[in-house]
Amino acid sequence: MAMNWILKAQDFENLKMSHMSTSDRVAASREAKFIVLGINEIYKRTKDSKLMDIMKRVTEKKRRIDKRLKGRLDI
Asked: Which of 8, 14, 18, 62 could form a disulfide with 32 if both were Cys (CB 3.0 to 4.6 A apart)?
């Protein structure tokens, strides 16, 4: 089961961010949240540091996508 989440995370990490539509970004952001929550359930039981590293990488990419979705704030 953990392997399935790891494969999903790898696919997400390899996802190209260029030329994504807004709906693609929303879908990618939701997918990232789903992946992190799934891996987190396994991490709670195993405390495997590799899983934490995967979650960090997916979360970082999700933050970049979310930043692009929200746009820049004008000061």
From this structure: 62
